[in-house]
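[Q] Does anyone have a clean structure-token version of this?
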Amino acid sequence: MMGYLQRLTQDLDRWIETGLVDGGKRAAILADAARPRRGASGLGALTIMGAVLLGLSALTFIGANWEMIPRLLRFGLMLGLLWTCLLAAGQAFKRDAKTLGHALALLGVVLFGAAIMLTAQTFNMTSFRNTAVLVWAVAGGLTAWQVGSRPVLILATGLGALWAGLEAGNVHVPGTVWAYLPVAAASAFLAVRMRSLVSVHLVSLALAIWTAHALHVWQDRHAVGALETQSAAILAFAALALAGSALRDRNITGAGIVAGWMTLITLFAALLIQIPLDGHLSAHDTSDGIGYGALALPALAVIALLCVLRVIAGRLKVWEAGSLFATALAIGALPVALGGEPDAAPLVLRMLVGGLIYSACVALILIGSRQSATTLRTIGIIGFVAQTLYVYAETFEGLLDTALFFFLGGLLLFGASFVLWQVEKRRSSTDRPFDDASAGGRS
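[A] Here you go.
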């Protein structure tokens, strides 16, 4: 809060100096910004955790005496507790006791899931336990939508991801769990409408895990090599990252979170793909399967299309889009370039891949700086440092080599800082005519 007030004070002084803000309103703006805002508090967290503990207590008591309770009475107890919580939540929201309402609604959804599980146990329907989790997630999502409860939505989003994980490990459901995509889409829609950033994080991580599992299934079915799978994974996550960035350009809530996670995963996978290129490839790491092209070519087409669209929209510079696509193209071409004799990747090819990864990291830093996207800029810096450490570990030995490494690294950093300075200088020069025109209009 203090950091925000300090930045706001500095911005206000600058805006007052340029005439954008009336100086007489400075004190009122700072006083309003310093007022405490209603939001997540310790009281609300304690209330919600207390409700969850009460629910667990009731479930434990019923479970301890489950065999002694007649079946009809079991259903009566569970339904009575469930409806009591939901009706009480409605009354709490009606009386503007939102924290209590969220807690009771969350407790009601927990009891609903417990009722499903205990019912399946009573009638020996354990083979449908995964479907029960899906029903639980759907009921939680509908409840969250109806009462406008973010805690309930977070639970429902987590349950949907749990169901997908259970189905992925189910021997009776071979292949990719395609049914999770509409579940993820519904969760993302509710998260955007209700502005639940925690739910967006959960959907992003679940979608990343789902994509990794889908690639694993694809590898087994098409008998492709490990290097092809790595390249395909990078292209797939890169396409998702650009799609998230395109949605962020349209000010979609949480799209930046999706773009951040997918960019981080893409960069991490791109760094890891260099390891098998250091002369440690085996015959099973590459193959001539047609299945790789069927996945890689559409992914490259999507990446190219999104880059072009973002250039047209003015969100990317031409060279930034070119460096990102060139990196994707080089990584996508690796299995083809190393097909047949994959024992040792040529040094020129390894240097080319490393250089393109460097250029992609610099592009991420510049894009993040220009668009004030701190996450994107941080990911680019992390990737730049990680790539530098990898080059050092693979190339230099001894003190003289280390000195040379630090010298070259210093030159690279100075070059990057000079480019950033030029970008900031160009931005300030393009913004100044507008400011001068505004000042002239006021005078």
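[Q] Thanks! Anything notable?
[A] Confidence is low (pLDDT under 50) at residues 431-443.
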